[in-house]
Each structure stands twice: as structure tokens, then as C-alpha cells.
Amino acid sequence: MPAKSGREGADMPGVKTNEREGTRAVLRHTRISPNKARQVLDLIRGQDVDRAAEILDLGDREAATIIGKVLASAVANAVHNDGLNGEELFVSACYADEGSTLKRWRPRARGRATRIRKRTSHVTIIVSRLPEERLARRRAKQAASGTQRSRRVAGSRRRQRAESEVATRPAPTPEVDEIEADLDVDDEVDEINEVGEDEFDDEAAEFDDEAAEFDDEAADDEVAGEDEAADETADDVTDEADEADEADETADQEGADAQATSSDETSGDSAEKKGK
Predict the structure, then answer these.
(1) Please, which contacts does 76-85 make with residues 24 or more away whose CB atoms are closer than 8 Å?
(2) d(Cα 36, Cα 42) in Å, to the nearest integer?
């Protein structure tokens, strides 16, 4: 048996990027490095178009905005040019190739310069129709969710109908036994109310008697207070009269003393004149 050559077991090369099936959109010479674009493209590869657009809208990178526009262009090409349904598409391939590099220079020390490389890239997105298996699974999932929703809606409508019927249903007519029971209860309530009213009247009468006694005591206290105040006022007037009498007596005594002193001085002056 002849020996196999080394090239017979080797894998065959895959399909070239420009030979992939599907509808594509290409953005060339965009001012973003291929590495930054590839990090965002890895997130949407193999995703449905709706899911990929949602991921790009929620992305916080600058490349997400650029790639979102390329994805929208690819979907528009598939719908308008190839007549495909936009809801049945997915991202079958996406890649970023390196474009031309812009050279710039930054001055450095000792007259030297440092090269600045401004990278560009070519972003390509290819969209294709979903396989039949995935479409069947999606339809089954949508049908199940729709059935569940219809069941929920029907259940809520049944509950609302039942509540409205209960609200509009007339009240049942009470039977004879229930009416008699209600009358007995009313009689008991009336008896209790009468007993309560009698007790309340007795308590009110006792309260009125206590209030009258309190008023009498207060009146007696007021009269006694007025008598004491009058006695104190009379005592004060008597004390003032006594003080006034004492003051008059003191004044009279002082006047008598003054007259005696003046008479003594007059008699002395006359004696001195006679002696002279």
C-alpha cells in the first residue's frame, strides 16, 4: 500500500472573504484601528439582526456607532436589492481588514522625531437569511409566547367579567327566619339602649347634685372672704386714725415746747436790758 503524502491529510482552505454568500456592506478607510473594530465585531458575529443592533446601540465604544451604520446599510441592501425579509436575517460574517496607515511625526529632544501611525481599517458585514431550523425554532417560540399571552389576556377578561357580574347582581331576598332574627336583635338593642338611658339619667342627676353642693360651698367661701377683707380694711383704717392722733399730739407738744423756749428767751433779754 503506497504511503500517503503529507498534503493529502491537510485541511482544504476555507471560502475567501470576497466569496462568502449573503448581502454585504463595506466601509473603507474608516479612521479606526482594526483591533478596536474587531473587539466590537466579535460581539455581533452570528447574532440576529435585531439582537446585533441592540448590542451596538447599548455599546459605549466609538466603534459601535460606526459598525451600527454599516449593519443598517447591509440590512437595507438585503431588503431592497435581494428582496429578503429584514426580520429573518442574521450576521453571517463580519471582519475588519487593515487599511492604509497615515504617518505623522512628533518632535522630540535633541532634534529627533517620533513616528505617529494613524491606523485605518476596512469594515465588512455580511448578512444572510437564517437557516430553516433556526426559523422554525423562532416561530415556535413566538407562537408559545403568543399563546401564553392570549391565555393571560383571556384569564384577565374572565376575571373582570366575573367581578362585574358580582357587582351588578341584585342582593338576595332575606327569608322569614332571618327577618325574625333581625327583629329579635332590634328588640334587644332597644332594651339595652333604654337601660343605658336610665343609667345615664341617674348619673346626670347625681352630677347635678354634686355641682349644686360645690356652688354652695364656693358661695360660702366668697362671703367669708369678703367679711375677712372688710375686717382687715376696718383695722387698717383704725390704725391710720391712731397714727394721725399720735402725730397731732406730737405736734402739739412740740408747739408748746417752742412757746416756752421763746418766752424764756424774751424774759432773759428784758432782764439784761434792766441791768444795763
Answers:
(1) 77/23, 77/24, 77/25, 78/22, 78/23, 78/127, 81/23, 82/23, 84/23, 84/129, 85/129
(2) 10
Task: Determine the residue type at 223.
Answer: V
Residue indicated by cell numbers 412740740: 254
pLDDT in tens, the chain (276 residues): 444 444 444 455 666 666 778 899 999 999 999 999 999 999 999 999 999 999 999 989 999 999 999 999 999 999 999 999 988 999 999 999 999 999 999 999 999 999 999 999 999 999 999 988 888 888 888 888 777 777 777 778 888 888 887 777 776 665 555 555 555 666 666 766 666 666 666 776 777 777 777 777 777 766 666 666 666 776 776 777 777 777 777 777 777 776 666 665 555 555 455 454
- Under 8 Å between Cβ of 91 and 124: no
Using the CB atoms, write b or e for 2-26: b if 16+ within 10 Å. Answer: eeeeeeeeeeeeeeeeeeeebbbbe
- Note the pTM of the prediction, 2 decimals: 0.49
Q: At what angle do helices 49-58 and 62-80 cross, to 10 degrees?
A: 160
Tell which residue, 45, 98, 100, has the closest CA to residue 67: 45
User: Which residues neighbour 130 within 8 Å (Cβ) at sequence distance 6 or greater?
Assistant: 48, 88, 89, 90, 138
